[in-house]
Amino acid sequence: MRRMSRLPSPPANQRAVRRHNLGVVLRHVATRGPRSRATIALETGLNKSTVSSLVTELIDRGLLNERGAERRGMVGRPGLVVELTGHGAVGLGLEVGVDYLAVHATDLTGAARHRRLEAGDNRGRPAGAVLDRLGAMARDALADLRAQGLRPAGATVALPGLVDVASGTLIIAPNLRWEDVPATAAIAERLPEPMPIGADNEANLSALAERWEGAGRDLQDFLHVSGEVGVGAGIVLGGELFRGTRGFGGELGHVTVDPGGRPCACGSRGCLETKVGLEALVAAAGAEDAADLLARARGGDAAVAAALREGGRWLGIGAAAVANLLDLQAVVLGGYFATLAEWLRDCVAHELHERVLGPGWAVPGVLASELGPEAAVRGAAAQVLHAVLADPVALGEPLEAAEGASAR
Amino acid sequence: MRRMSRLPSPPANQRAVRRHNLGVVLRHVATRGPRSRATIALETGLNKSTVSSLVTELIDRGLLNERGAERRGMVGRPGLVVELTGHGAVGLGLEVGVDYLAVHATDLTGAARHRRLEAGDNRGRPAGAVLDRLGAMARDALADLRAQGLRPAGATVALPGLVDVASGTLIIAPNLRWEDVPATAAIAERLPEPMPIGADNEANLSALAERWEGAGRDLQDFLHVSGEVGVGAGIVLGGELFRGTRGFGGELGHVTVDPGGRPCACGSRGCLETKVGLEALVAAAGAEDAADLLARARGGDAAVAAALREGGRWLGIGAAAVANLLDLQAVVLGGYFATLAEWLRDCVAHELHERVLGPGWAVPGVLASELGPEAAVRGAAAQVLHAVLADPVALGEPLEAAEGASAR
Asked: What's the pTM value of the predicted model, to 2 decimals?
């Protein structure tokens, strides 16, 4: 903010209005794409000189770039348009999966700037040791981002269990057998610099990723159900993630679908997860592991096909429960269910048609995730960027400006 | 509005503000109870002279009364307080049950002013004939209300199926075997006078009644599950009824709990309704009908007790699915489930403890409805009154004032 620092500070309410309007302009460019200052003024209802000043500040803050537009018509000179920058802010997503750790960094243009995935079973391992490794991966990512001249705006940790979002605590993760892990504090201790850190359930973050940049872009009401060792669900209602008052919603994996069924890691029995969680699928198919399951499915193995049909049937029974309760437009298959969508989709759709009350047109469609197993960690990275879009001032000054300021 | 008619009309935006503020004052008295003009001003932030003028208009409109307050302290004279009137507006609730028709009128003080229930199986009867009878009951009710000097503010029809609230159409009611019945239009044709008429699902209206005047008064997030021939559910989230985008939410009765179970009236199989709908309970208990079931349960009949335990188990499995998905504070047993709560409650609570993921304190409690089988029709009547509270001006002038105006 070099420009503003030469002027006397405006009154607090004027500063608050300007801060709000910086977000309005930044989000407008983020959702509507590159456009001229004049177009932004027209579309937001802000006046031209205000928009011009806001855009200048967002350029100073490193969040917007200015460039010549492509000529669209045959006459007139091409105007200048502003667009989001790749270097202004980058969101860091971190994920503790049941059988992997992942890191993903995304910039404001949506480009991935760092990606790592380490396979390895985390079940029963002490939380401290797992978070040590995730912390090391995060430090590597931060060093790589700094080397690229990028500015990390914060990190969000995706976790496979119930998360108290306000305190950043993992309350319970049945498959990991972890309870009461202060996840954000633990990650903060392991990073070399202070930054905003959040935590959320992986299924919630996957659903947000689908809503923001995946199959749910044009949907208001959908279920994103992701298959991993656990079965997680994120529910989007009216375009927003539904969390429940205490944040414990969306536990589709632990909805009973077969009351007399097998015991589940959660202590109950007959949960959807016992039918269509990855290990249940692998076992039912007589496969060695997930890769073997997929290879045999592709090879046309009849036993694997039958196991996937049966899994799809249970998944459809679970999804139909959600549709009957919540009135959905679509069910998005995520995680391994996206990889296996070719075999699962018709079975899921069949059960929805059989079991959802209402006219045929009200039965939700079945889509495969476009983001696949990376959805949660991408959603985690995107959540950091959404916080920047919500309040660009909170990000602080850009690297050069901050250095300039400290030299003054 | 005799008082205002002597003055020139204020500008449109002033009228809109005053109209809004009339609702603010009326709702304040409705939710906080009788109080003085000065207290209303203090609590709403409106200034004293505005409140005084608004209260005068609400008294003119017949919606508020003024009376001397009881003396609370030993000194000072008792002040005047204003309170809702019993005669200012009455809401008419009409209900088509699967095996009964009901009418209920409630005034603004919450008192019942007219109640009728006619038992009789409506399954497979033509909609026109059933609505003829309900229309006749509604006409009797209106005549009775007029004879009491009361002013009907409108009617809401409770229906046992999917309702398109915007058009007032019953889309499908599996147990009645009705489809595409224009319910509000059909009732309007059968009434002697025009009035606002709405329609809604009976389970939604039951949940609203619980929220407004029943066991859900102090709850933000709960499931109200009502047992009749069908099993209906109303879901309250954040204090508001959840309807789903198209209004098709809450179909807990058609959630599959036993995938290989018996066929259901809806065309699916193993729905919760096939386990714990009233007829399923009666059949499982070897009883003749609902009255016999209740009598034998009270008499300690072992077969009936076993059937109710089994029913409670299935009800708990269904409620646990909702709790896992939506994070509830409580499950309220309504309709026949309230009558049978003594036998069902512990079984439902046990399944919730077994099947809801999360810490013990997060498992929802189980409450019995305080309103019983009348909840839906009372909710229907209350919905009319809530529309009056939302916009008292829409109700029009009181009887006397309207007569005075036509004489001018």
From this structure: 0.79
